Amino acid sequence: MESGCGERVVVALGGNAIAGESGSDPISQQRAVERAAEQIADLVLAGYEIVITHGNGPQVGNLLLKNDLARDVVPPVPLDWCVAQTQATLGFLIVTALEASLRRTGAERLVSTVITRVLVDSADPAWSRPTKPIGRFLPGAEARERIAQGEAWEDRGPRGWRRMVPSPDPIEILDRGTIERLLATGTVVVAAGGGGIPMVREDGRLRGVEGVLDKDLTGALLARTVGAACYVIATDVEAAAIRFGTPDQEWLGTVTPPRLRALVDEGHFASGSMGPKVDAVLRFVEQGGERAVITTLDRLREGVEGTVGTRVQFGR
Ligand code: ADP
Ligand code: MG
Q1: Whose CA is nearest to atom 11 of ligand 1?
Q2: Which end of the chain has fewer CB atoms within 10 angstroms, the N or the C?
Q3: What residue ranges in the chain does DSSP mark as E strands?
Q4: Nearest ligand to the C-alpha of residue 263?
Q5: How far is the CA of 203 from the centre of ligand 2 (A)?
């Protein structure tokens, strides 16, 4: 049964894996997390050492909306606080669901979540060009009021305007020491949810900043940091495709980093969705990781074992 042989694997759960198909109400979110937990428990039972990371787009959007609606009653909190809140909420949901899945199969494991801060560079060029849309759509007039207050908003077409925030590169998992210690005791760890809480270091002190990190890129950094053999991104498609959405669409199976780079340059992967995932798996393998996989949550174990999904590795 122990085919995993203690190999360390970082699993990144996408929005679809945790938001629920039927909406963002608590029960739907909990059900979606429970479904993900079943797949992850299967990996734990197979003998893999697991670190889980996850997205938080819909959840942080909801918090920002509450902040907005209640701003005359309760002082709004900064974006980094909102990320921390979603890490805690999704973290306890994942921990609770995974404990239950493991218990059902008779496996005794500690499961824990680490509120994770991630270092970014205050000189990152990303600060001057906000690229990540967050929160709700607003009509132009209201968006312009917010622009006057110093926020960046962009006309996103028929649905209205959306707030845009910078997405700097993750540089260092600041809570890696805690994560490593938990892993050393056999604990299944949830970390760096929502890409992590972005922090800058100024005069030797850390300070949270208003940005959003890409969870797939932070996942790649986390996987390198904990020395994972495999980084797997679980999303809602079975693989990355070339000519996606056309009659000639073709799922990519095993691919080397240079070949995948060439496909990126040909423009096969959309910038807001598959693009960052491909970038993240490439970074992981190019920086020394053994292999990385993009596949659907429902086939997570097969992905890790190399029989489905887009598998990125050198050689073969
Ligand atoms: P998640 O929320 O799981 O992080 P996203 O929704 O951001 O994932 O990205 C997955 C989506 O990317 C797929 O549902 C698909 O619609 C889209 N996509 C864009 N380009 C491609 C491509 N070349 N191959 C596969 N999927 C693609
Ligand atoms: Mg999505």
Answers
A1: 273
A2: N
A3: 8-13, 49-54, 111-114, 117-119, 132-138, 153-155, 161-165, 172-173, 188-191, 197-202, 205-208, 230-235, 241-242, 250-251, 254-255, 291-296, 310-312
A4: 1
A5: 38
Q: What pLDDT shows up at residue 4? A: 67
CA 145, CA 140: separation in Å to the nearest integer? Answer: 9
pLDDT at position 18 is 77
pTM of the model: 0.95
- DSSP per residue over 80-123, as a string? HHHHHHHHHHHHHHHHHHHHHHHHHTT----EEEE--EEE--TT
Which residues does the annotation mark as catalytic?
15-16, 132, 215, 277
Q: Give the ligand 1 atom nearest the CA of 268.
A: 23
Atom of ligand 1 nearest to the CA of 17: 3
Q: How confident is the model at residue 23 (pLDDT cuts 50, 70, 90)?
A: low
Q: Which domains, from first to last, does the chain contain? A: 8-35+49-116+173-228 (3.40.1160.10), 236-316 (no CATH)
Residue of 11, 16, 235 to test ligand 1 pocket, by largest number of atoms within 8 Å of CB: 235
From 59-73, 171-185, 243-257, the region with the lowest mean pLDDT = 59-73
Q: How far apart are CA 222 and CA 173, in angstroms?
A: 7
Q: pLDDT by residue (tens digit) across 123-141? A: 999 999 999 999 889 999 9
Ligand nearest to the CA of 309: 1
Tell me what percent of the residues of the chain surpass a pLDDT of 70. 97
Q: Which residue CA neighbors atom 9 of ligand 1 most closely?
A: 273
pLDDT at residue number 20: 64
Q: How far apart are the first and last CA of the chain?
A: 26
Secondary structure class of 162 (helix, strand, coil): strand
Distance from Cα 272 to the centre of ligand 1, integer Å: 8
190 and 95 Cβ atoms separated by less than 8 Å: yes
